[in-house]
Amino acid sequence: MAFTLLVNGVQYGVDAEPETPLLWVLRDSIGLTGTKYGCGIGQCGACTVLIDGLAVRSCFLQASRAIGKKITTIEGLSTDGSHPVQLAWKEFDVPQCGYCQSGQILAAVALLEKQPKPTDADIDAQMTNACRCGTYHRIRQAIHRAAALRA
Amino acid sequence: MVPEINAWITIAPDDTVTIRVGQTELGTGTLTVNPMMVAEELQCDWKKVRAEYASANRDVKEKAPEWTLKIPGSGETDPGGAAPVELRGMDGVYRRMIIHSSGNVRESRYYLQQAGAEARERLLLAAATEWGVPVSELVAKDSIITHAKTKRRTTYGAIAAKAARTPLPDPSKIKIKTPDKYTLLGTEQKHFDVPLKVTGEAIYGIDVRLPGMLYAAARACPVWGGDVKSYNFEAIRNMPGVHSVVRLPFNALTKSANFLCGGAAVIADSWWRAKTALDAMPIEWDYGPAAAVTSASLYEDHVAAAKLPGEPKTNEGNVDEAMGRAAKVVEAVYSVPFSPRARMEPGNATVLVTDNRVDIWSGDQDPQGLLRRAAKLTGIAPENVYIHTTFQGGGYGSNGNGPQGEQAVVVANALRGRPVKTLWTREEDWGTGTRYRPMSICFFKAGLDAGGWPIAMEVRHATTWNLGDMGYRGLSAPPYFVPNYRLTLHSPKTHVPIGTRRGTGAAPNAFYMESFIDELAHVTGKDPYFYRRELLARNPAEPKQGIGGFAHRDDFLKALDMVAKMSGWGTPLPEGWARGIAIDDRRRPTRTTSTICAQVHTVEVTRRGQLKLHRVDVAFEQGFALMNPLSVRKQIEGQIAWGYDDTMYQATTLQDGRAVERNFDKFPVSRMNEYPKQINIAFLKTNRWITGAGEEAIPQIPPAILNAVFKITGKRFRSIPLKNHDLSWG
Predict the structure, then answer these.
(1) What is the pLDDT at residue B259?
(2) Fold held by B205-288+347-423
């Protein structure tokens, strides 16, 4: 039942049932725990990762569906927190409890790939992850800042 | 070994100052503000400060230094003194490690400042001894000690080892700074945990990984008070990775929420395998005596209880006589449903029990409590229990206390020698792992004079919230002048586990009072801001003089005026828009501490009933000082979303004795698109210490929004959430 996944540019051999959700393969098999479990039903977005550049909820995706694709987790954005979205997040001191922020950041990265200069309406439409601490005010400002940093 | 100056502070030769923090960081800023309080007095270079968690195990073994135990001052109005403290029995070295009740700064401010001052004095004394000069001639600033006369200079790092061996002759003489002397406190400082939380490096309880670790998935009886009758482990024994099953005992120790129900945990070599096997394991439940209870049946129980005489809390003047001569009588019934705190990180803890030691890795709001309970559950001495505190994915009213850790200890105790991570599913967390803000119903009856001012008010509150003052905080002594006032409490029985929740009793109680006062203003054709203002102004400012007379009256008026001005109160808005106002201070009836917060919410409701919150203006009391105003701003911004969710969506309903809403699909959390585009926060300086900032902007939100909704739609909604109501109009 072993298979391999390409995560953050590294091939990992995985010994798990192929129908295991990608989230749990990332966290427990590979040991990349920055991706979080929140609901298990694809609702909250804490488990968001990028698959071939698109934001995907990994708790709801069988790991076998990601074979051969390019998976990016929060650990793969940069080695030192220097990705423009991470820089903007620090500048605006966005996280509170921080549990959802890996997912928020990856959702923002995917948004900026598609719309390098997003409007507030774009942000409203694309940022669909839940934050129970309610950090949306700073997330919005940080996305605008990240867009400027990328330009 | 890096020299330890005292239990809170180590200083390395390169001047790195490490400050130990007793409280778990759950998003409110403790890991930053507690070091700020120490560093203010230490007078070290803030750029060289690091934070780490203090050890609850050391707290068990070591008594608090004598100089931290006497907290002088006359409480909230003394800038150099302390607010009333909740440190009962907390005489371990780190004093209050629990974090709740917005109490971190309030309760630990004094001894943390003392810790910084004690260390500073030792560093100075060590340098003075080395140089043979009077300590009074030395100056300490930014981790550098200088002696002007002899032009000598040293650094904290260079003198730290000597300071660690230099006790103060009389540490009881330590004085802390008053707020006017602060240089670091009161400035906006970014949070130490943020860089870790944008890279995925921050370790939460759920992220802990140990060699040889097993994983447990747990299920408790979904009906509180129920137990497991039987389960068939043989049916799943051969599933991939399955290791064993552990019976979860009914009410094992502390009556903490999860232990009200018995259950079972399946252990496997990965959590997904454990959960998959648990889902497949046949379990037969004994649902216990409450299996037929529904929200509707509980509502009826509350209504029935409210008809009984109840427990009088306030009875001032002669309500019945005054009601009899009122020109107009207004009655209304308000209610809120059950609701959990609903944090993001599902409950978990990783535990290793051996025959002589327990190690627990968890984000827990009460490390001292968890330590004691783990000792009881395992029979191992508290001195041999170690808590390794991690970050915690939200708390919102003690969601991180007790049950998760206790259950994990029970599981690991059955598998001694192997570390086990017990993790709840979201459904388990919201269904049996948490406690709830209870349903309550508030019956109002007001008698108004010919001018429209209340001369009598009768309040009957049916609630199971019998923790402390939850049932009457804010209701027993309203800020408004009502010369004849009666409050009675009526307590029906419920099997649902009741706990604290962000906003405490002030949240439902302010929803009731701030809505009903608004109703009275509209009934008499008065502007709700001016109506509140007049009723506040009529109240005597001296405490104990009539109902609600209280020393904070003038600051209430200031906050109300401030927020009205900020929001453009009274200026025109487009059709379908309106402003709603509310004020509360989360003041406890038994003491004076409070944090005044007034809010105006600018709301739009379309004719079809679609609500949009456009703008929120907040006047928030800062008292003598806010320690880290950035933390407070972030707390207020977040509370706006939190209170909005309560207003719009959140409720736990009961069917067959159990919680229906157990995941985000039925218990929504608002997203970016609903967050108001404009937030204005202003701080109001007053001459006292405030209670805190972790929940003080919650209670105003439902009434402010619903007051605006009434203005637009003409519909007075007296229960939340609004998702249950038709907001269409015109």
Answers:
(1) 61
(2) Aldehyde Oxidoreductase; domain 4 (3.30.365)
CB nearest A134 (choices: B201, B425, B639): B639
Q: Which chain B residues touch A86 with a CB distance below 8 Å?
A: 198-199
Inter-chain touch B637–A137, beta carbons under 8 Å: yes
Both tokens of B607, joined, read: 């004719």
Nearest residue in B to A125, CA atom: B673
Only one residue has tokens 């690991």, namely B412
The DSSP secondary structure of B285-304, one letter per residue, reads EE-GGGTT--HHHHHHHHHH
- Residue A137 has its nearest CB partner, among B272, B343, B679, at B679
B44 with B142: CB under 8 angstroms?
yes
Tokens of B308: 């009984």
Report pLDDT for B85: 66
Q: Report the gap between the CA of A68 and the closest CA in chain B (Å).
A: 22
Domain residues of chain B, as ranges? Answer: 4-197, 205-288+347-423, 296-339+436-724
Note the pLDDT tens digit of each residue in B510-557. Answer: 999 999 999 999 999 999 999 999 999 998 877 654 455 577 899 999
| pLDDT over 80 at B298, yes or no | yes
With cut-offs at 50, 70 and 90, classify the pLDDT of residue B73.
low
**CB < 8 Å to B26, chain A:** 97
The enclosing domain of A22 has a CATH number of 3.10.20.30
Is A105 found in the same domain as A71? Answer: no
Q: Please give the residue range of the domain that contains residue A131.
A: 84-150
Best probe of the B interface among A33, A59, A79, A133, by most B CBs < 10 A, is: A133
Count of domains observed in chain A: 2
Interface-testing mutation among B23, B210, B272, B341, with chain A (most A C-beta atoms within 10 A): B272
Chain A CB within 8 Å of residue B346 CB: yes
pLDDT at site B552:
86
Same domain for A115 and A65? no
Asked whether the beta carbons of residue B195 and residue A81 sit closer than 8 angstroms, the reply is yes
Q: A58 and A107 share a domain?
A: no
Smallest CA–CA separation between A133 and chain B, in Å?
Answer: 5
Judgement on whether residues A40 and A24 belong to the same structural domain of the protein: yes
Q: Does B241 touch chain A (CB under 8 A)?
A: no
Q: What does the mean pLDDT of chain B come to?
A: 94
Residues of B in contact with A46 (CB under 8 A): 344
Question: What contacts B506, CB < 8 A, 6 or more positions away?
Answer: B473, B474, B584, B586, B587, B698, B699
**Under CATH, which number does the domain B4-197 receive?**
3.30.365.10
Q: What is the full DSSP assignment across B509-567?
A: HHHHHHHHHHHHHHHTT--HHHHHHHHHHTS-SSTTSSTT--TTHHHHHHHHHHHHHHH
Residue range B441-484, pLDDT digits in tens: 999 999 999 999 999 999 999 999 988 889 999 899 888 999 99
CATH number of the domain within which A124 lies: 1.10.150.120
Sole residue written with tokens 């309030």 = B106
**DSSP state for residue B143 in the 8-state scheme:** T
Q: Do A6 and A48 belong to one domain?
A: yes
Residue with tokens 């003598």, as numbered in its chain: B624
Task: Assess whether pLDDT exceeds 70 at residue A77.
Answer: yes
Whether B587 has a pLDDT exceeding 90, the answer reads no
Q: What is the pLDDT of residue B585?
A: 92
Q: What is the CATH architecture assignment of B296-339+436-724?
A: 2-Layer Sandwich (3.30)
Predicted local confidence at residue B221, as pLDDT: 94
Q: Among the three residues A24, A54, A76, which one is the final residue of a domain in this structure?
A: A76
CB A130 within 8 A of CB A95: no
Over residues B678-720, the pLDDT tens digits come to 999 999 999 999 999 999 999 999 999 999 999 999 999 999 9
Higher pLDDT, B88 or B146: B146
CB-based contact (8 Å) between B210 and chain A?
no
Asked whether the predicted pLDDT for residue B252 surpasses 60, the reply is no
Nearest CA to B57 among B384, B419, B391? B384
